[in-house]
Prior knowledge:
By secondary structure, this protein is α+β, with helices and mostly antiparallel strands. The protein has helices spanning about 25-30, 45-50, 55-60, 65-80, 95-105, 140-150, 170-185, and strands at about 5, 110-115, 125-130, 155-160, 190-195, 200-205. The protein has two domains: about 25-80; about 85-205, Cytidine Deaminase, domain 2, CATH 3.40.140.10. Strand 2 (about 110-115) and strand 3 (about 125-130) form a beta hairpin. It is elongated.
Amino acid sequence: xxxxxxxxxxxxxxxxxxxxxxxxxxxxxxxxxxxxxxxxxxxxxxxxxxxxxxxxxxxxxxxxxxxxxxxxxxxxxxxxxxxxxxxxxxxxxxxxxxxxxxxxxxxxxxxxxxxxxxxxxxxxxxxxxxxxxxxxxxxxxxxxxxxxxxxxxxxxxxxxxxxxxxxxxxxxxxxxxxxxxxxxxxxxxxxxxxxxxxxxxxxxxxxxxxxx
Length: 212
């Protein structure tokens, strides 16, 4: 389909004030050495480090303990993007992209999230519904709407990532979104949007007219 695969508006990267952010700084922190002593063969960016395999890191001479420290710091960096604060007004898919892109763009598996909104489209909370495989994340309407009902949400925005980096919706994405919209109408919780996160871009189902 033609249409709204969107590039980010504004700066989608979020600062990580409590953790070292460069690749060499991350490795130095794990190894307990100055950054200038880190091997020249180390990844040249924090993002490259985030996507390095254990074998690639082990090739740098890291011990099992040091490797575990690197993985712990990497996970801290991945999770350090600030969640949407309760009471934040949801305006459009760009808000979702800015909140989720740093967390999801380098994941090796799909995750499916829901952002619960009140009647004025203010954020109540974020909920991770499921985590799946490289190209799918099993989603059941019961699991999706149970927290929305429990927290008295009036509306919901769905988010999932494509590990391929291409945010174009698949046939399964279209099918499950139609099904979720139908269930939402039955339970009285409006599906406002479904945002697919890719590498540096996103697709908004609402912008494409796919929310019915």
